[in-house]
Specification:
Order of helices and strands: HHHHHH
Shape: globular
Helix content: 40-55%
Number of strands: 0
Strand content: under 5%
Largest sheet: none
């Protein structure tokens, strides 16, 4: 969990690492997150946010290094930018965990789209959710 001191520390550290615009925005978007951040997680999030592939990124760290937190940082920034149509693909056994962590740690609401939910969409899911989202 971040205290006011942690938030100020990370904001300062982020400011020293890159350009003022995106760093300042990132530090504001994660200031209220209920998570202990590690430097490699900030680096991964900044990489994803600065990626030349502007429509997405793949975070593929080893088990236990905090991919959920890294993604949460990126999602927090996108959410703050009002970019709210975001598709996250995770293994079935992790869906509820991700939904819970996004809500509890980053205050980001989400909806799990499994085959039952997609089947109830107009056209029985034939619209292929996620395609064409910006």
């Amino acid at each position: 969990m971040n205290t006011a001191y942690h938030s100020q520390y990370w904001a300062h550290a982020l400011t020293l690492r890159g350009s003022a615009g995106d760093i300042a925005a990132l530090s504001r978007s994660i200031a209220n997150a209920r998570v202990d951040l590690n430097p490699h997680q900030i680096d991964a999030a900044l990489f994803a946010l600065r990626s030349p592939f502007t429509n997405g990124a793949i975070l593929a760290d080893e088990v236990g290094l905090g991919k959920t937190v890294e993604a949460g940082i990126v999602l927090s920034q996108k959410w703050a930018e009002r970019r709210r149509r975001i598709l996250i693909v995770v293994p079935a056994m992790l869906r509820k965990q991700w939904q819970q962590e996004l809500s509890e740690k980053f205050f980001i609401p989400s909806e799990v789209l499994d085959t039952q939910v997609v089947g109830r969409l107009p056209g029985g899911g034939a619209t292929r959710p996620g395609l064409g989202w910006r």
